[in-house]
Each structure stands twice: as structure tokens, then as C-alpha cells.
Write a structure and sequence with these properties.
The structure is a single chain. By secondary structure, the protein is α+β, with helices and mostly antiparallel strands. It has one domain. The protein has an 8-stranded antiparallel β-sheet. The radius of gyration is 20 Å and the shape is globular. The N terminus and C terminus are likely disordered.
């Protein structure tokens, strides 16, 4: 009931970026983003316990600690020794899976080259990634020179909060949570033929926030939270260390992308943070 009320309330907000979509389809967005920065507290909650500059090992410690606390609470709630043993094994399996997700993007092509994050990394640029499976979402942690500079969070568009919703609806929820954003367009066949690329908020300190529509191929709405002073340096470095161009086809990606519902793990998720809903 509460979730329904949240969605109904969000629908009442007038969103400048979305409401003017048709007017802006035929023009290019400016290179800079003006206006008030996103809500600092909301961005901090989205960031979680991770901090820019953390190493993969530092991030794993944060993840392991959160998983251990969650399973320890479940273990305390049962006196069944067999059940306790199963919970410990489940915790270890999750820890191993997250550690095993660590990927170095060197010259060798990986399965992630045809996935929802195919455009979020570059090869031969000392970049790497960890993946954390959370309830109804995946959190991708990206590193440059072994230092965290970006989080990419992919929500399942079939989640009850988002089911049947279009990106405009998702954008309304995001702007209700973080504040007004601006549309960023990308050229298609000609300079006058443009389409929405992402919503972008003005930088807030060392945080830059984007909302991205990937529902057409992957069934996901996504958020990218980047370190403002670092991500442009990563892009520039990619150009300097660019390897062979990898052809990325949307239809192939849609078939080969990992299932967003696979191995979903009950965990505190960012969907609750976005909608303002908190666990009871």
C-alpha cells in the first residue's frame, strides 16, 4: 500500500526534463549541466559505504562485512544447527561469487563486452570491475588504476516498482528523489536526428549522477554515479590506449546479456532508497 502511494505521489510531480522531451528531440543538449546539484543526502545513500579511491580489496571488505552482518542476524534467529550450517555455506558462496566476479579489462575480450555494461569500461587502460548481486538489481563497481571511480546500478524494470513503466516514469521517480535533471541527447543518422541518451544532474562535489534507459534491450533502468574529477580522465586515457574496436550490437547484446534475475540475492537494495521506502 505504501509503495502504491509513493508511486502515485511521484506521478504528480512535473518534470522539466521529461515534459519537454518532444521539444528537445530535434536539438542538441549543451555540453554543460546547469541548475541545482542533486540532493546530497540521497546521493550519499546511493553511494553506500563505498568511497572514491577504494581498492578492489577495500570494497570486498565492505561487502563481506555487510553480508556477514546479514547472515549473522539470520543465524541468531534459529537454533537449528543444520539450518545455521546452511546459512554459513550460503554466505561463503556469495562471498566467493563476488570475489570471482573481479574482472581486469586487458586485451582479452570478456563476456561483459556484450552486456548491459559494455559501454562502461575500456580495454588496455588499467580498468577493472567487481559485481555485487543485490535484490532486484546489480551493482557494478568500476576501478581505474585499482581505485574506485564509478558505480553503475542496474535495476530490473520488471520489479513491482517499475513494472509496466516507461523511462519517463523512472525519470520522475529519480527527479523526485534527487532533484531536477537535464536531458542529454545523442545524434543518430544525422545531426538533426537525435534521441535521448541519458538524464544528467549537475555535479555535487565530486559526484556526477546519470540516469540511463536500457529497458529496450536489457529490461533495465540504470544509474551511473561517477567521480566528477576522474571519469573524464578515464575517457581521455581510453582514447590514448584504445585497442581494437569491439563491435557492439544491441540485438546480440540482448540475447547474450546475463539474466538480471539470475542469482538474485535477498539484500537491502537501492530501490528502497530511491522510492524513500525503508525496511520495517
Amino acid at each position: 500500500m505504501r509503495r502504491t502511494l509513493v508511486l502515485a505521489a511521484c506521478a504528480l510531480f512535473v518534470v522539466p526534463a521529461v515534459a519537454q522531451a518532444k521539444k528537445k528531440r530535434r536539438s542538441h543538449a549543451s555540453s554543460s549541466v546547469s541548475g541545482p546539484p542533486p540532493n546530497a543526502r540521497a546521493v550519499s545513500e546511493l553511494m553506500g559505504k563505498y568511497k572514491w579511491g577504494m581498492s578492489p580489496e577495500d570494497c570486498l571488505k565492505v561487502i563481506y562485512a555487510e553480508e556477514h552482518a546479514r547472515y549473522a542476524d539470520q543465524i541468531k534467529k534459529t537454533e537449528d544447527v543444520y539450518q545455521q550450517d546452511l546459512l554459513r555455506k550460503a554466505e561463503q558462496a556469495i562471498d566467493d561469487k563476488i570475489k570471482g566476479s573481479f574482472t581486469k579489462f586487458d586485451e582479452k575480450k570478456t563476456g561483459w563486452d556484450t552486456s548491459i555494461v559494455a559501454n562502461e569500461f575500456g580495454h588496455n587502460n588499467d580498468e577493472s570491475m567487481l559485481v555485487r548481486w543485490e535484490k532486484d538489481q546489480r551493482r557494478f563497481l568500476f576501478f581505474w588504476h585499482d581505485r574506485l571511480y564509478k558505480q553503475y546500478i542496474a535495476f530490473n524494470a520488471e520489479h513491482p516498482v517499475f513494472a509496466g513503466k516507461k523511462f519517463d516514469d523512472f525519470a520522475k521517480l529519480m527527479e523526485n528523489r534527487y532533484g531536477p535533471a537535464q536531458m542529454k541527447m545523442k545524434a543518430m543518422r544525422t545531426k538533426d536526428d537525435v534521441t535521448l541518451d541519458h538524464l544528467e544532474w549537475p555535479p555535487s562535489g565530486d559526484y556526477t549522477l546519470w540516469a540511463i534507459d536500457q529497458s529496450s534491450f536489457y529490461g533495465n533502468f540504470s544509474i551511473s554515479l561517477m567521480q566528477t574529477r576522474v571519469y573524464p580522465l578515464v575517457d581521455q586515457s581510453r582514447k590514448e590506449h584504445a585497442g581494437p574496436v569491439v563491435h557492439k550490437d544491441g540485438f546480440i547484446d540482448a540475447v547474450t546479456a546475463p539474466d538480471p534475475n539470475a542469482a538474485a540475492d535477498p539484500n537491502a537494495d537501492v530501490v528502497d532508497q530511491i522510492t524513500g521506502r525503508r525496511p520495517k
